[in-house]
Amino acid sequence: MAIQDGYTLLVLGAGVMGTAVTAAVTDSKMKPFPGKVILCSQLEKSEKRLKSQFTQDFVEVIVDVEKKKKAIETADVILLGCKPFHFEAVHAQVKDNLKHNPLVISLLAGVTIDNLSIFSDKIARVMTNTPAQFGAGMAAVALSEKASEYKQFVNDFAGCVGAALEIPEKNMDAATALIGSGPAMCLLMMEALYDGGVRMGLTHDVAKTAAAKVMEGTAKMALETGEHPAVLKSKVCTPAGTTIGGLLKLEDAGVRGSIARAVEEAANISASFAKK
Ligand SMILES: NC(=O)c1ccc[n+]([C@@H]2O[C@H](COP(=O)([O-])OP(=O)(O)OC[C@H]3O[C@@H](n4cnc5c(N)ncnc54)[C@H](OP(=O)(O)O)[C@@H]3O)[C@@H](O)[C@H]2O)c1
Ligand SMILES: *[C@@H]1O[C@H](CO)[C@@H](O)[C@H](O)[C@H]1NC(C)=O
Ligand SMILES: *[C@@H]1O[C@H](CO)[C@@H](O)[C@H](O)[C@H]1NC(C)=O
């Protein structure tokens, strides 16, 4: 059955990512739009945080376990945002209330569709990242066979964080590395640009803002032109100029290979988690 306007969304594990994705959806104009959002948390301090962040009257925060179980039975869509190693414990708590086989959208890294099939046969895995908190997230989506009829819904839902693309599940470890770990890799590059600016005499304030804006602007240019990065790069290299000089220093140091291998390593680690 298609997800209808006014559906009930229940969030199991409203931490950093669960909250970011929920806020992206409730701030969007997406159709179908939820009629009710139920955020489940465990700790009183999380309850306080959630109640102050989500003030809309269609949002409810539940801490009580018995209330949570009852609420599960009313959920059309469950957004799973607990830590990966908690999913079995979370399932054990609510398994008797899952008989209606709701659509489950999982944000958990390294937990497979097969692992999640204990919740429902309609599983969507979504890998996103912390920039989702600022409307600039990226999401990769993979669906179980039974969830394929929710393709459009899940892509729109995940797309609320910024952008979403569908991939085969076997590519999820690669997506975890590039999308999930990518921001930290970009921050390392940003920090290096900042340091270089400071080394050459820019103030910390100027270097910090400039390094971040350069990365933001470059990403925007690549997205809006749709050009290959190499094409854009060659356009900014004046013969005998400063840019090509700087780039060759990066090539001498093997920076390109290091960054690509960093993604490979992160993907390998993600794959090794799934085997545990
Ligand atoms: N952070 C990232 O950059 C990132 C990127 C991509 C994917 N992810 C994935 O996102 C998931 C969440 O990560 P996170 O950084 O958002 O973690 P987090 O902030 O620690 O959130 C985990 C949440 O799960 C809740 N929780 C634990 N057991 C629960 C239960 N039995 N019932 C209901 N809620 C329960 C906790 O609630 P209480 O606070 O009330 O205890 C907490 O809010 C992970 O699986 C991770 O793989 C994270
Ligand atoms: C990733 O794993 C593959 C297969 O085990 C291995 O060949 C490769 O060297 C690993 N990559 C890194 C960066 O360690
Ligand atoms: C998750 O599934 C993988 C295979 O898809 C399996 O190797 C692993 O043991 C499962 N993990 C858990 C915690 O069930």
Automatic annotation (TrEMBL):
It catalyses: L-proline + NADP(+) = (S)-1-pyrroline-5-carboxylate + NADPH + 2 H(+). The chain crosses the membrane at residues 6-26. It holds the Pfam family F420_oxidored. SUPFAM superfamilies: 6-phosphogluconate dehydrogenase C-terminal domain-like, NAD(P)-binding Rossmann-fold domains. Its EC number is 1.5.1.2. One of its GO terms (biological process) is L-proline biosynthetic process. It is an enzyme of class 1 (oxidoreductase). NADP(+) binds at L12, G13, A14, G15, V16, M17. InterPro entries: 6-PGluconate_DH-like_C_sf (IPR008927), NAD(P)-bd_dom_sf (IPR036291), P5C_Rdtase_cat_N (IPR028939), P5CR-like_CS (IPR053790), P5CR_dimer (IPR029036), Pyrroline-COOH_reductase (IPR000304). One of its GO terms (molecular function) is identical protein binding. One of its GO terms (cellular component) is cytosol. Residues 11-110 form the Pyrroline-5-carboxylate reductase catalytic N-terminal domain. Residues 169-270 form the Pyrroline-5-carboxylate reductase dimerisation domain. It comes from the Eukaryota. Belongs to the pyrroline-5-carboxylate reductase family. This is Pyrroline-5-carboxylate reductase. The lineage of its organism: Eukaryota, Fungi, Dikarya, Ascomycota, Saccharomycotina.
